[in-house]
Amino acid sequence: MGRTSDARERLLDAALDLIWSSSYGSVSVDDICSQAGVKKGSFYHFFPSKADLALAAYEAHWEQKRPLLDAIFSPQVPPMERLSRWCQSVRESQQVLFEKFGHVCGCPYANVGAELATQDDRIRCKSEELLNRGLRYLESAIADAQREGSIHVADVPAAARAVGTCLMGLVFRSKVQNDVGVLRELEPTVLQLLGAAVPA
Amino acid sequence: MGRTSDARERLLDAALDLIWSSSYGSVSVDDICSQAGVKKGSFYHFFPSKADLALAAYEAHWEQKRPLLDAIFSPQVPPMERLSRWCQSVRESQQVLFEKFGHVCGCPYANVGAELATQDDRIRCKSEELLNRGLRYLESAIADAQREGSIHVADVPAAARAVGTCLMGLVFRSKVQNDVGVLRELEPTVLQLLGAAVPA
């Protein structure tokens, strides 16, 4: 109950928000404690370091996000529609962040991977792992689309990687241009990569 | 002559190397001065701030890189071969960085854009501008390939953006996986995006 018992969760939320809307390097443990309303001593009770908090915050974010992704990529949904809903969901999430923070904030896992891959191998591995979890959804949808004859790709895992790569590139470009509109290119680019007909 | 007269160049080189191989946020003005062998007072003689140095370092990097890109994208080279050589050049550059720093370091413009887009609008704009300069090469090659009938795309600038986006995504993934081999996917993905035949 109350402020003490949910201190860990408040630290996780504050870390995710602060790092996502700025960068890992620009956010201090003091900043995170201040935003979470948690004393620094308590911080170190929960987490040995800022990196440990970040790792836990990304895992918590994944767990929060997973029911939405499970619904989008449900085998009950026709596979090409899963991909279309996913493209829409990416646009909507970035729009929400843009309205909250005044900036396109990009993907939290990709951001921290891009920033820290050469410096912190635990964070690099976590970023890779989380992005690979996303690929499993894409692989399953692409394999189902292939089986029903909607697309024909030579190699399903390679096609999923290409789609995931294209997403990362576009979300990144959207962030650098600070323009959510860039993400309208996601669905046609995905369809082009899969050799599917692109609606006019 | 000597150490004083090339202090500005040494600061530019040190900033590029340090930021590229780690991140903007993790590198201090002291680190840069120390690596460059330049006193901090001299730093502020040349640059009002770390951000100003970074902006100048990226511009200097572009000027250094430009003759190679001009040669790769020369109108004397058949357009599909330009794209192929460019894919190869991206792999080779990342391999050189990997051998120098022990890590896949990614694209310097994309890295700093991803890290700072929400925090520093001058750096965000510079990253966008430099990435757009790269797009001009791609647009020209794709337009020439279209004119000679090697490919047929509906919209040349959109195709160039898709190829550039795919590059950014792949270079980023290569960095997060710390695996230069990921970049072998670049050429087949580019060909797929352009609807060209992918060699077996």
Overall description:
The structure is a homodimer. Chain A is mostly helical and about 200 residues long. The first copy, chain A, folds into two domains: about 55 residues, Homeodomain-like (Arc Repressor Mutant, subunit A, Orthogonal Bundle), CATH 1.10.10; about 120 residues, Tetracycline Repressor, domain 2 (Orthogonal Bundle), CATH 1.10.357.10. Helix content of chain A is about 75%, strand content about 0%. In chain A, helix 7 crosses helix 8. The radius of gyration of chain A is 18 Å and the shape is elongated. Chain A starts with a helix and ends in a 7-residue tail after the last helix. Chains A and B meet through helix 7, helix 8, helix 9 and helix 10 of A and helix 7, helix 8, helix 9 and helix 10 of B.
